[in-house]
Structure formats: C-alpha cells, structure tokens
C-alpha cells in the first residue's frame, strides 16, 4: 500500500485491497481474527441442543445488507468503511462507520473495528453481523478476540444457521483455543412468529451455561430447561450432545418405554449408538424387563460403494420361563437374527437378501420385536410370518427380470404347512420394433416349490375341525364343494411357462378400430403330491408330468361415437371381443398355488385370461361384449361408465371346473352367460370423486357384488366412505352375505393441527370391528402425535382372530430428539 489516510473522508467511502506485506499484514491478521468469530457461530449447526438468552429467545432482524462482493482472489481482503485510520504511535488500525470486511467468502459488518498490533487483539462493536460462506449469520454487539482466536469474548451473541436453527447468548467466552462457554443461552429450531417476532417460539431450550469442547467436539449443557411458548415444562440439570461438525458420534440415544405383556413385564430401552467408522456403525439396545430380565438387541450396518447391508441380533436369558408355560417360549434362552442387504451390479441390475432365524417361532410376537408401522410410525401391527429370500432383479427399457428364492417363517407354529419356494423366475420383454406391423412381447415364469403338510380349510359349520377334510375316500366325488378346500398341497411342484403375444390395431375409414391378437402359451409341469389323508379327494397323488399348450387367436372391435356440445364432449364406445382357443387341459387336476384369487368385475371384463396367476389358464371359446361411455365437461369434471357381459361360446368353461380351492365357482363366470358387470364414476372437479362397481346375476339381476365409494378432498379436510355388499359364496367358504362400511377422514383444525380416523362397521354383525383414531401437530420444528388403533390380527398361540388395541404417543423436537411410547393389549373376540 502506498498511502495511509488519516481522518474522516467526508461522505466518501474508502475501499482498500490489502495484501500480505507491510501494513496489509496487520489487517490480514485482523481478518484472520474476524474469521475466528465464525467458529463461535459454527457450533450452532448442532443437531442437538443449546443456549438461551437470560429471558427468552426473540428475533429482531436487522435490515438486509448488501451481498459481499467477490474478492479478486483468495488471498485478498476488501475493507470498506467511512474512515480507515492507522495510528503509528500505538500500532493500531481502526475502521469506523459502516465497516464491511470481505475475505474468502466471509463478511463482517460493524459500526467500528479496531485491531491492536501490540496486544494482537481484535475489537469490534455496534451492530456486528458476520456471514460465512455456508450462509450462517452471527449477530453481536461487542466482540473482542486475540488474532489467533484462542481467547476472547462476544457480548449479546445471536446466530442464525442455514438449517433454520437459532441460538443466542448474553455472552460467549473463548479460552485456550479449545473451549467456548456460552452464558445464559437459548436454542431453538423453530422459525420466529411472522406476526410478532418478539414472541417466544413454539419451543426453546435455555441453559445457564453451555460449554463447547472443540477437541472432543462435544456440547455440555448445565441447568437446562425446555420451554413451550415461553412456559418451562422440563428441567435437565446436565446433558451433552455432539457439536454441529459431527455427523455421527458414539453415545446414548433417547431412552424408550415398553409397555410389555403379562408374560414379559414392563420395561425400558436404553440405546447406545457406536460410530465404528465412516462406512459402518452399530446400535446396542438393551431392554430391561421387570419379569424376564435383560433382552439384548444389537444392529450392525455398513454401507459399501455399491450397496449396504445390516444385521440385527436379539437374545435373552429368561428369568421366568414358566410365564410361557405350555408354549415354545418356555425355555431358558431365546433369541433371533435377521439381516438384509442390497447391492447394485450396474445401473440396471441389483441383488440382495432378507433373512430371519429364531430360536422359536413365538419369540418375535412374545416380545413384540418384529413390528410393522405405518409411514409416520403411528401404530404397530404384528405380522404372521417373516420372509427370508435371495433375489436378483434387472430392469431394462421395456424388459424386466426377477429371480428369487423364498422361505416364510411362520409365527403360528404351522411351519410344515408353509411352502418353500426354491426359485421363482420371471422375465418379460416388449420388442422395440414392430413384428408384422404390430407389437410383439413375450414372458416366462419358472417356479419350483415344496410343502411338507397339506393345508385344509373347512368351509362348513359342521366341519369345524380338519377331521372331515382329511377323511380318505376312494371316490373322488365324495368330497363336495360345501365341505373343505385344499389351500396348499403337500409335495413338490415345478412349472415352466412361456408365452408369446402379438397384437395390432387398425382404424378403418368409418372410424372403427379393429385389433387382431394372437398368443401361444406352453406349460411344462412336474407335480409330486404326497399321499396324506384326504389329499386324494382333491388331487391325484404321486408323480404327474404334464405338458399344457394354449394357442389363442382373437379380434377386438371398437366403434367410438363422439358427440360435441358447448358444455363438453361425450364418447360412446361399443366393444366386442371374440377369443378362440382349445379347452384347458388338466383342468382341476393340478396344484393351484398362485391363481387362487378370482374376482370378476368391470376391470377384467376384456382380459383375455381372467385367472390371476399361471397355475390355471382359461380355455374354450369366449366372447366379451360391453359398452363404455366417457363424458368430459369443458369446465372440468368427467363421467365414465361401463356395462358388459361375457359368454362361453364353445368348449369347456374353465371357471365351472372344480379345482382344489374352487377358484372359478361362484365367480359369475361359471355359466354360459356370465353375470352382468358394471361400473360408473363421476368427478365433478378435483375435490369430489364418486364411483360404483357391481356384478348382477344374469337371470334374476340380484346383486352379487356391489361397492360404492365417495371421496372428498378439500384444503382443510378429507373424507372417504366405502360401502361393500357381497353375496354368500359357499363353495369358496363364505357362507353368509358380507356387508360393511369403511370410513376414513382427516381434518385440519388449524395451520398445523390434524385429526384423523377410520372405522370399519360390519353391518351383518352390527358392530364396529376396527377403528383408528389419531391427532397430531406437525410443523418445521415440532411433532406431536397420538394414535389409538384396534384391529384383528394374529396372536401366537391362539386359533381365532385376536382384537388388538394399541396406543402410541410421540413427541419430536427437530434437531434434538424424538421420543415415543407405545402401549398395546389383545383379547380374544
């Protein structure tokens, strides 16, 4: 620098670019000291707790300041002030009046900045505002630091971070270059009230002292209290948390309460988190139970370059095994291990696994360890089985491949009735180029599975046990559809299915749309059915090899009529479909594991094969006819309707053939002329939706299946009502008509308050057999939720359904902690 200006410069602003030589060195050291103040604000990135002003956290922002200009390079500093003065006698540099210092992305603004070269101290005062490169803003009134920023203090500190957390303190003292002590501090992650910035936030944490140990990267809080709307609600004499620079750090997590059961007792969990390395960690979570002792739980996680995996282990040396008298849990040691992982081979292929092992099949349910929660974690339901599998999946532009082996671990103890799927392989592909001018696709499915014990399902009031189902008979006709079903066969089953499909659409000069289609499906099947009691009444026992070929040709016809009016347009479209194919071979004589669901309605009226899986295939000539209408209103809204029927033209009707589970019987398709199916929906706008679906008897027009649904979604509330009425299907095990209403709704009481609930009313039994009630407050810094749930679920050791009750209370403070308490009970119904 070639000149130093002394004294005021009238209304001019002095801009000086300092370099690291001569007098510039002093101001550069000054700027290094200024940068040190950023370390005071840096610790406010904390994901946990912090200080508070002596009274309460208030927010009174200063007017916006201009953005700092970019420096010429990283080694230059820009000083802007009304007056810049250098006192040679006292070796002191002063910048006075609207001082702005810019250095390496950090800016400091103040009324006055003084750097004493003899004492090597930086002193700034008056409306101090420092903004670092990460967007964190620190406000203060007085700042005094050594130029190596090892010691110093800041008065009236307030920090706003980029992650919307805020901290204030009456004073911050720094010593030994490692410790910073905040006196009378307050911390919050809540935004200030827009209407009244001085109003206390929703929650804040006050502390008499907060100590930041930069070497340990820890924050220690003394005499802290949590306030809601300025009212103290919780007091903590001492606690600690990692500082904001720490993304992962070993330490204890928030404890949790466990309601337990009469067999296990009540308890508490105290989790410990262990950050082993940047790519791996573990959580050790002992559960202390009043009746059974300590249940140890541990989880190990590791993330690799191409994926991640985790392993969880559980174990307990039970103090009172007799509490589970007569059950598999009556043993000294019980435990389990479960693991999962997934890895990418490239951008299209992934492989992974899920695995579960248990000392006994009641362990998870007894200790409520395998809990399924809704997306908000509001309530739990116990599943009936755990899945172990190994899989490989690939996804292309128009192709899909999936191969996996599956083993279900039953919580009911009937493990011998659960199948093992050694592999099931699916592959499908749609060619990207036309074949004979149309679209060509193909798919394959391979499965190999086994089951040790037959699964019978008594479907009559007389057969309340399996005795009738397992009665052997030399006469296959001795078993009638009204007695039992064979849900799962004993033995092994292997099937390979391959199918190719082609279709092409033409539109003639009259606007008629013609779509010819063709397909060829082949099944190679090897079935080995064990000769257990009663099985021969359903399936041929012993080994069976079968080859099933199903060629199909068909034509679909559509003729849309369009009427345009000033208020909108209506399209009426008659549809007819003719399908020609041979009879289904081996119909009802082979195991059926994946095509057990059969619902005939408007959604699958024009499906070429209406069976849901591969084990059955529809055969015989068939015609599907119907008409659909769509009305679009210019001002928004639409009406859609469809009505139709299906006809068996020739050959054998696959849906009238009795198989081990009577799949097609009572479906509405098990006669030459099917039941009528219809659907209609009306959406006047984006707020309301109404729809009905129905199946009516072909001769009497009696309703066999009817559903009506209405939905409304407003800004503040939403509601839905679903009514269902289903006729008896005795061949499928439904002996009486089923009728009920399912309702759900939510209402936004205030900006952040939501109440929701749902209920299912069984009209036949005239009782509500399931309901969920919940209320919660959610905003950007606070979560408060309470839910009460009742539902039927499986409970180990009981045959009939169990009505379970669960209550959960959850509270969460952003950046601090989330705590929840769950209480549940169950009783036979």
Automatic annotation (TrEMBL):
Start and end residues of each LptD C-terminal domain: 333-753
A Pfam family the protein falls into: LptD
Subcellular location: Cell outer membrane
Keyword terms, alphabetized: Cell outer membrane, Membrane, Signal
UniProt-listed InterPro entries: LipoPS_assembly_LptD, LptD, LptD_C
Keyword Signal: yes
Domain of life per record: Bacteria
Oligomeric and partner information: Component of the lipopolysaccharide transport and assembly complex.
Cited function: Involved in the assembly of lipopolysaccharide (LPS) at the surface of the outer membrane.
Similarity comment: Belongs to the LptD family.
Protein name (record): LPS-assembly protein LptD
Gene name in the database record: lptD
């Amino acid at each position: 620098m070639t000149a130093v200006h002394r004294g005021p410069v009238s209304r001019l602003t002095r801009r000086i670019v300092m370099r690291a030589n001569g007098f510039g060195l002093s101001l550069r050291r000054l700027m290094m000291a200024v940068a040190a103040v950023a370390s005071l604000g840096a610790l406010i990135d904390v994901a946990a707790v912090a200080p508070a002003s002596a009274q309460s956290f208030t927010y009174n922002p200063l007017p916006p300041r201009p953005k700092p200009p970019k420096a010429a390079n990283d080694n230059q500093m820009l000083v802007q002030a009304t007056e810049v003065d250098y006192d040679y006698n006292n070796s002191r540099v002063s910048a006075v009046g609207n001082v702005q210092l810019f250095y390496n992305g950090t800016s400091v603004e103040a009324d006055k900045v003084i750097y004493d070269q003899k004492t090597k101290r930086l002193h700034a005062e008056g409306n101090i505002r420092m903004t670092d490169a990460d967007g964190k803003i620190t406000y203060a009134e007085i700042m005094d630091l050594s130029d190596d920023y090892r010691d110093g203090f800041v008065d009236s500190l307030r920090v706003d971070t980029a992650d919307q957390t805020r901290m204030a303190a009456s004073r911050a003292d720094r010593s030994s270059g490692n410790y910073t002590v905040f006196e009378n501090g307050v911390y919050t992650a809540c935004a200030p009230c827009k209407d009244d910035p001085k109003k206390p936030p929703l929650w804040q944490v006050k502390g008499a002292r907060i100590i930041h140990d930069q070497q340990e990267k820890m924050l220690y809080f003394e005499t802290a209290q949590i306030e809601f709307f300025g009212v103290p609600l919780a007091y903590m004499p001492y606690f600690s948390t990692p500082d904001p620079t720490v993304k992962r750090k070993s330490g204890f997590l928030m404890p949790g309460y466990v309601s337990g059961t009469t067999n296990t007792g009540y308890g508490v969990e105290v989790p410990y988190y262990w950050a082993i390395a940047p790519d791996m960690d573990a959580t050790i979570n002992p559960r202390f139970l009043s009746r059974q002792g300590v249940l140890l739980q541990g989880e190990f996680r590791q993330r690799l370059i191409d994926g991640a995996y985790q392993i969880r282990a559980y174990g307990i040396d039970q103090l009172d095994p007799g509490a589970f008298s007569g059950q598999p849990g009556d043993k000294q040691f019980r435990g389990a291990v479960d693991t999962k992982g997934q890895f990418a081979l490239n951008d299209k292929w992934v492989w992974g696994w899920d695995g579960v092992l248990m000392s006994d099949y009641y362990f998870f349910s007894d200790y409520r360890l395998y809990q399924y929660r809704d997306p908000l974690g509001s309530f739990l339901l116990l599943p009936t089985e755990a899945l172990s599998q190994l899989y490989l999946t690939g996804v292309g532009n128009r192709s899909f491949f999936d191969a996996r082996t599956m083993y279900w671990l039953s919580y009911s103890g009937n493990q011998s009735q659960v199948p093992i799927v050694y592999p099931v392989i699916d592959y499908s592909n749609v060619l990207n180029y036309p074949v004979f001018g149309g679209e060509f696709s193909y798919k394959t499915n391979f499965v190999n599975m086994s089951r040790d014990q037959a699964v019978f399902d008594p479907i009559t009031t007389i057969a309340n046990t399996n005795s009738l189902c397992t009665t052997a008979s030399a006469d296959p006709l001795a078993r009638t559809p009204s007695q039992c079903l064979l849900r799962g066969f004993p033995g092994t089953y292997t099937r390979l299915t391959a199918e190719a499909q082609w279709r092409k659409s033409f539109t003639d000069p009259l606007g008629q749309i013609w779509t010819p289609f063709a397909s060829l499906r082949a099944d190679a099947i090897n079935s080995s059915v064990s000769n257990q009691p009663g099985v021969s009444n359903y399936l041929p026992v012993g080994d069976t090899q079968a080859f099933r070929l199903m060629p199909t040709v068909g034509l679909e016809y559509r003729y849309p009529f369009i009427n345009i009016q000033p208020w909108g347009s209506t399209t009426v479209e008659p549809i007819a479909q003719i399908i020609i194919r041979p009879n289904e071979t081996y119909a009802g004589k082979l195991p059926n594991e994946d095509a057990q669901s059969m619902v005939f309605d408007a959604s699958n009226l024009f499906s070429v094969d209406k069976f849901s899986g591969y084990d059955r295939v529809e055969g015989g000539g068939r015609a599907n006819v119907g008409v659909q209408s769509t009305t679009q209103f210019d001002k928004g809204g639409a009406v859609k309707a469809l009505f139709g029927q299906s006809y068996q033209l020739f050959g054998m009707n696959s849906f009238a053939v009795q198989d081990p589970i009577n799949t097609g019987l009572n479906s509405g398709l098990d006669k030459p002329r099917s039941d009528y199916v219809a659907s209609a929906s009306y959406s006047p706008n984006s707020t309301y939706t109404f729809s009905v679906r129905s199946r009516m008897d072909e001769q009497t027009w009696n309703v066999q299946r009817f559903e009506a649904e209405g939905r409304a979604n407003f800004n503040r509330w939403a509601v839905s009502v679903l009514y269902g009425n289903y006729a008896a299907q005795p061949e499928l095990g439904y002996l009486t008509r089923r009728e009920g209403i399912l309702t759900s709704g939510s209402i936004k009481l205030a900006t952040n308050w939501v109440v929701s609930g749902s209920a299912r009313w069984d009209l036949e039994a005239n009782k509500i057999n399931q309901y969920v009630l919940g209320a919660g407050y959610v905003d950007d810094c606070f979560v408060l939720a309470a839910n009460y749930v009742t539902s039927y679920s499986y409970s180990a050791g009981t045959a009939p359904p169990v009505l379970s009750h669960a209550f959960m209370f959850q509270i969460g403070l952003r950046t601090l902690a989330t705590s929840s308490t769950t209480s549940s009970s169950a009783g036979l119904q």
